[in-house]
Amino acid sequence: MCRHHSSPPPAVAPDPTTAPADTAAAPQQQPASFQATAAPRRAPGTRRKLWQLPAKFHCPLIGTCLHVDELRAVARRTGAVPERGVGDYQMHVSFVAAADHRNPLSAATQKALDRKYAAALRRFARARSTAALRTLWEQHLAEGRVPEAFWALMTHPQADPPLHALAYEEIHMRSHQIGAGLAADVQALTETRAELRRLRREQAAAAARHAQTLAERDRRLAALTAQTQALRQSEQDLHAARARIHDLEAGNALRELWERLGSTEAQRDAEATARCSAEADNARLRDALTRARAEARTLAGQLAEREAVCAALEQLLGTAPACTGDCDDCARAREPLDLGGRRILCVGGRGSLARHYRELVQRCNGELVRHDGGLEESRQRLESLLASADAVVCPADAVSHDAYLRAKRFCKRTAKPYVLLERSGIGAFARALADLAAAANPPATAGAAAGRC
Q1: Which domains does the chain have, with CATH numbers?
Q2: Strand partners, 421
Q3: Are 97 and 27 in contact (CB under 8 A)?
Q4: 3-class DSSP state of 346
Q5: Which of 184, 380, 383, 446 is the most buried (most CB within 10 A)?
Q6: How far apart (Å, rounded) are the C-alpha atoms in residues 179 and 401?
Q7: CA separation, residue 183 to residues 64, 175, 274, 288, 403 (Å)
Q8: In what order do the strands lie in the sheet with 418-421?
């Protein structure tokens, strides 16, 4: 018992019947939660509290009736003993030291014991005499229910000091017997473990031999199975060969082969005819599909060009349909484009569309001058036209490479608006005029680009 092996904290008076043997193992300072509080004296006929029992009973009661994990749970709830850095023995000694007086830790210990052994307390409460208590105690000892009986007996109001001493002696001697039995059990366990290791080694060796035997048997069985299957297949092949020999000898096989050959050739001729017809139909369909796709591409290009021309012309003429969305520039988009009398130079482009170019520029309040892009007119005239123009439009599909580069370098050098068109159609030219008009008359909210290359 811990009171016979370590001294209690200095603030707790030691049991005069016991002498401490190891003062270093006990706590050196008693926590504040261990401080004694005034407790009323026990009324006759009521159960004893933990702190009302003699001090020498605290150690066997706490050690026998509460597991160390339960002690740590109580300490965690009360906060009286820190969990970290406190071993099981130190935790036990702290609870025994706190049991001398009524304090939060001893009260929590009393509550935990009453809750844990409530059923035993009810059974012992029915005993009204010391003899009845002793009978119950002996019954519980015989059934191995020692902890619950120990707590119920020690706190029972009818238990006298001789009965307390009897229970204490029984618990004390059982602890020695348990220690001796534990040593014998440890030795027996060690021997059993050694025997178990030996048996496991023997079992592993036997299992390995058995596995090797089974593997060898499986290999022989697989070889015999393969031989059996081969014999069965050979027997089937033999029966089939005999049947073929019989058919050949009777002439049935030859007649069947000639019939199959004739049927196969007729089927082949029919399939060849059908294949030729299908290939011809496929070729015709492919030609028709190719022509249809080419026509569709041509029509799509023409339609796109017509739509672009219509859109550009509607914008130039100010006849664009009203916008139904929320757009701040709709009113401006419906107004005719205004180039502000600027002189527009067209370098290249189709000669057949020159008249239309000029009419579009005039409708936009501008003037158009044109250079054929180096086909007949000289490059000196191009230089003079570039110098006199306010903006330059260059259709890339109808201009010489030299004229295109000269116009581009001149506009970059002089920061003159310059629009390069991928195509020379009316729609593309109209979109170029729209860009130039937007650059000449930027909206009030944001500036537009002066030109693009």
Answers
A1: 2-33+44-190 (no CATH), 337-440 (3.40.50.1370)
A2: 395
A3: yes
A4: strand
A5: 383
A6: 111
A7: 19, 12, 100, 104, 113
A8: 367-371, 343-347, 391-395, 418-421
Extended beta strands in 195-301, E state: none
39 CB neighbour count, 10 Å cutoff? 14
Degrees (nearest 5) of the Cα angle 260, 263, 266?
150
Measured between alpha carbons, how far is 444 from 453 in angstroms, rounded to an integer?
A: 25
Following DSSP, what letter does each residue of 127-193 receive, concatenated?
A: --SHHHHHHHHHHHHHHT-HHHHHHHHHT-TT--HHHHHHHHHHHHHHHHHHHHHHHHHHHHHHHHH
Segment among 211-220, 390-399, 400-409, 444-453 with least mean pLDDT: 444-453
pTM over 0.90: no
Average pLDDT, the chain: 80
C-alpha span between 246 and 41 (Å, rounded): 121
The residues near 327 (Cβ < 8 Å, ≥ 6 apart) are 333
CA gap 213, 231 in Å, rounded: 27
Non-local (6+) Cβ contacts of 278 within 8 A are: none
HSE of 291 in the Cβ direction (CA atoms, 13 Å)? 5
Read off the DSSP letter of residue 397: T
Work out the burial of residue 56: count CB atoms within 10 Å of its CB; fewer than 13 is exposed, 13-18 middle, 19 or more buried.
middle
Average pLDDT rounded to a whole number, residues 356-367: 90
* Predicted pLDDT of residue 219: 93
CA–CA dist 437, 444 (Å, integer): 14
Q: Give me the pLDDT at residue 183, please.
A: 58
Taking the C-alpha atoms of residue 50 and residue 104, their distance in angstroms, rounded to an integer, is: 12
- The answer, yes or no, to whether residue 172 has pLDDT greater than 60, is yes
Round to whole Å and give the CA distance between 72 and 49: 21
**Dihedral angle sign, alpha carbons of residues 30, 33, 39, 44:** negative
3-state SS class at 415: coil
Radius of gyration of the chain (CA): 57
CB 156 within 8 A of CB 127: yes
Is the pLDDT assigned to residue 83 strictly greater than 80?
A: no
Closest of 399, 377, 397, 379 to residue 387, by C-alpha: 379
Tokens 């527009």 found at: 344
Contacts 24+ apart (CB under 8 A), 164-167: 164/54, 164/57, 166/134, 166/137, 167/137
Residue 359 has a CB neighbour count (10 Å cut-off) of 13
Tokens representing 189 are 């366990």
